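Handout, page 2. Input:
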Amino acid sequence: MKAFLLFSFLLAFLIHETEEILVQHKWMLAHKDELVMRFPRIKQVIHHLSTLHPKAFLIAVAEESLMLLLITVFVIIDVAYAKEMWTAVFMAFSIHLVVHLLQGIMVRGYVPGLITSVILLPYSFICIHHICNEIGFGALTLLSIIGFLVMVVNLRFAHWLGIKCK
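Output:
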């Protein structure tokens, strides 16, 4: 795996997460009532995100960052299946960027993470092209599904950890 992909992903992840850390809590507090009125089916998620203290959110991001750093080290030292793990995580991140775009469309405005998602999507597409050339579209699709599922489970764990350690 090319060093550019490995290290640029770490940087992209940190840039994106920084935007979310800086604005998530205040944005949720300012918009929670409107969001609950417009999207009553996800009232519980909105409540959770609006009560998530910035320190808890930071701990969750730190857990995710540590996981990404470990996987990157595993690729560098050539641990079995590390490239596949890295690809799954990268694809989950790329899907996460698209989710922010969809959220922005749904709320018809800014959502935390939207600016860096718009900036990082071209980077993500370029990387996906390189990865697809290495492993093929079928493997990339499977790893994307696995990565998305792992991301959902890890996100729940990271938020739980953030709340417990706060």
